[in-house]
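Example record

The entry below shows one chain as it appears in the dataset: sequence first, then structure tokens.
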Amino acid sequence: MLGRQEEWVQNLISARTDLEHLFKFSEKNIQQAWREVEKRLRTVGIPVDHSLLDIEDVWIHLLRTYK
């Protein structure tokens, strides 16, 4: 991975693990939990125009790739 991509992935992992409790709290509100991850990523500098609609798919890919 390139530096910027690696930083983005590290930020995603950090945000997702920090907010793990939101994912365990309610399976029904899983999209709200992902919105919170998106908010966290935006606070660390992900541009507003950058699409984060597929961050759940990125997370699943990371889990499968780096078991």
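Notes for this example: Residues 34 and 56 are 7 Å apart (CA to CA). The chain has one domain: 3-65.
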